[in-house]
Amino acid sequence: MKDYIEERAVEIADYIIATNATVRQAAKKFGVSKSTVHKDCVERLREINPSLASEVRRVLDVNKSERHIRGGMATKEKYLHLHEHQTAPA
């Protein structure tokens, strides 16, 4: 594996652990795809640093278990803002 890929995998994992970031947030921050973040954190990291891999896995599992809540909140916000714009005086 190329050195820069290993470095990126560790940096992404450190970021996710430090900030409890989602895969999507990490992908945006590092300018890579969600698939790359997932592959770095789940597959590649297992070979590079197994203890870091399990730590980041715990954060990813929590995020995954909460994603339906975040999705619901985002939808609620969207419709609250839509409603505000519709009822605002012209």
Structure explained in plain terms:
- Helices cover 87% and strands 0% of the residues.
- It is built from four helices and no strands.
- It has helices at residues 3-19, 23-30, 34-48, 50-87.
- The model has no long low-confidence stretch (mean pLDDT 87).
Helix content: over 70%
Number of helices: 4
Shape: elongated
Radius of gyration: 17 Å
Strand content: under 5%
Q: Would you identify the regions where 5 or more consecutive residues have pLDDT less than 50?
A: none
Q: Please count the beta strands (DSSP E, at least 2 residues each).
A: 0
Give the ordered list of helices and strands.
HHHH
| Average pLDDT, all residues | 87
Distance between the termini: 60 Å
Find the structural class using helix and strand composition.
mainly alpha
* Largest β sheet strand count, sense and barrel closure: none
Any key phrases for this structure?
mainly alpha; elongated
Topology (SSEs and partners):
Blueprint (H helix, E strand, L loop, with lengths): L2 H17 L3 H8 L3 H15 L1 H38 L3
Helix pairs in contact: 1-2, 1-3, 1-4, 2-3, 3-4
Quick recap of the structure?
The protein is mainly α. The chain has four helices and no strands. The chain has helices at 3-19, 23-30, 34-48, 50-87.
